[in-house]
Structures are given as structure tokens and as C-alpha cells.
Amino acid sequence: MAKLQDRVALVTGGGRGIGRAIALALAAEGARVVVTARTADELEEVAATIRSAGGQAWTLTADLADRGSVQPLVRRVTDVCGPVEVLVNNAGIGSSANPKPVVEFDDTFWDLTLALNLTVPYLLCKAVLPAMLARHWGRVINIASINGKVGSLHGAAYAASKHGLLGLTRSLALEVAGDGITVNAICPGPVHTVMSDRRLEYDARRRGVTLHEQEASVTPMGRRLEPDEVAPLAVYLAGDGAAMVTGQALNVCGGVVMAC
User: Which pLDDT tens digit goes with each residue over 21-62?
Assistant: First the structure.
């Protein structure tokens, strides 16, 4: 039997990049996957790919920048599929959208980054936990970053939000450790995504190097990760085999961070 047969999984930011890869991987192991993001066309492509492979998928558009959308989203998932059993907090915003040193940082962008990258995962955890507690089973997987452990040049809001997400991960893991629920974070390094492309361009301009030279320098392995190189860890953390793994922040980073 598939590792996640009929588990209800909600993947935020599931239309592309890491979220898309995780949604496909969870579905391949039998999960009933709900993907949410702002762009309906991207979500429909993910769902169609899952269904064509024999999996089950649903799409729900939502703008999580509006904190009032969180509770209705969870209610809609429950109405369609049942209570969320696996929550993947992947939606967020990176530093590439507005990189600046702190002295010049845009305060509105600071607020948006912390809202999307930290407050929204907090609110989603809060919304799905009652059903997990009632069932004595649940998996929360927060997609953080190695910048949750080290700083990000001209990306203070991103680093601060991801450091905060690790604090939320560890605190919640302690709270529910005796209830059959695990809470973990995945900390990717540079991943080949649209968001990462923009940061790569910014850093190449800042350093006066080519895009190829910049990309070759971002990990000791000489390249960025692909999204589907992050997804297998999410599948593992979502399954019964990871029942004793909780409160962890696990790096998938091509050797960028080799400690903590």
C-alpha cells in the first residue's frame, strides 16, 4: 500500500516550484491532495497532472496575504475532503521581490514578508490542529530555508521570517508531542524556482558576474537544487515512518549549511 493512502494533505503555494513538487510526490504515495495558491491556471495544471497519474487532487484559490482567508480555506478543504491530516506550509515570499539593506528597507515589504512567511503558517496550524488533536494524528511540514539559520544579505525580512518559522515549528512540536502529531521544517538551499531566478539575477548584478558564474557559486555542488529534490523529504516526514521525528529543521541545501 502507498505510504500516505487516503491521507488528506493541504499544500499551500502548490501551483509551482517546491509546492508543486511536494503535491505531486504526496499524491504519488496515495494522499488526497488539495493545492492552494492565487493562480487558478497553475493549480489546475498540478491537479490535472496528479489525476492523469491516477491520483486525487482538488484546487482552491486563495490569497493568503488576506489573513481572513485562512479559516474559510480550511473549512472548504474539510467540506471537500475531510479534516486536514498533512499540512504543508509552503506559500511565501522571498527577498528577491524587493532586496535592500536594512537602512533602506521597505517597511511595507517587511510587514508583508512576515505576514506571509510566518503569520499565515501560524494561523493555518491553529486552524487545522483541533481536528488533528481529535484524531491523535497529524503532520505539519513548514517549508523554511537555510536563511532560517543564517542571515541573508539584503534580505533581512526573509531571514527574520524564516528564523521565526523555525521557532514556531519547535514550540508547536513541544506542545503536541504527546498527541500523535509531528511538526517539522524543511530548510532548502537555493532551489531552481522563479523566485530564486530573480535573486540570482540580483546577486549577479551586485557582484558583477554572469548568471552562470553566480549559479555555480551558490552551493558547494555547483548548482541549485531542483524542486523534486526537496519533495522526498516531505513525503518521509508526512508518513508513519517519521513518527519519532519532530521539532527538526532539516537542511536540503547542497552542502551550503553543514551544521545546525
Answer: 999 999 999 999 999 999 999 999 999 999 999 999 999 999
Does 158 qualify as catalytic in the annotation? yes
Q: Which residue reads 486552524 in cell numbers?
A: 127
SS3 state at 14: coil
Distance set, CA 189 to CA 47, 147, 257 (Å): 27, 8, 8
CA distance linking residue 203 with residue 210, whole number of Å: 10
In eight-state DSSP terms, residue 154 is T
Phi, psi angles (nearest 5°) of residue 163: -60, -45
Identify residue 224 by its one-letter amino acid code. R
User: CATH topology for 8-189+230-250?
Assistant: Rossmann fold (3.40.50)
80: amino acid identity, one letter: V
Query: What sign does the CA torsion over 155, 146, 128, 51 have?
Result: positive
CB atoms near residue 133 (< 10 Å): 15
* Domain boundaries defined on the chain: 8-189+230-250, 192-224
Return the ∠ at Cα 42 (arms to 41 and 43), rounded to 5°. Answer: 90
Q: Residue-wise over 107-118: b if at least 16 C-beta within 10 A, else e?
A: eebbebbbbbbb
Instruction: Tell me the per-residue pLDDT of 100-152, one tens digit each, with 9 for 90 and over.
Output: 999 999 999 999 999 999 999 999 999 999 999 999 999 999 999 999 999 99
Q: Considering the candidates 122, 158, 202, 236, report the single residue annotated as catalytic.
A: 158
- The model's pTM is 0.96
What is d(CA 132, CA 114) in angstroms, rounded to the nearest whole number?
A: 26
**Measured between alpha carbons, how far is residue 96 from residues 100, 128, 158, 184 in Å?**
9, 30, 9, 25
Cell of 115: 505576514
Contact 185, 147 (CB under 8 A): no
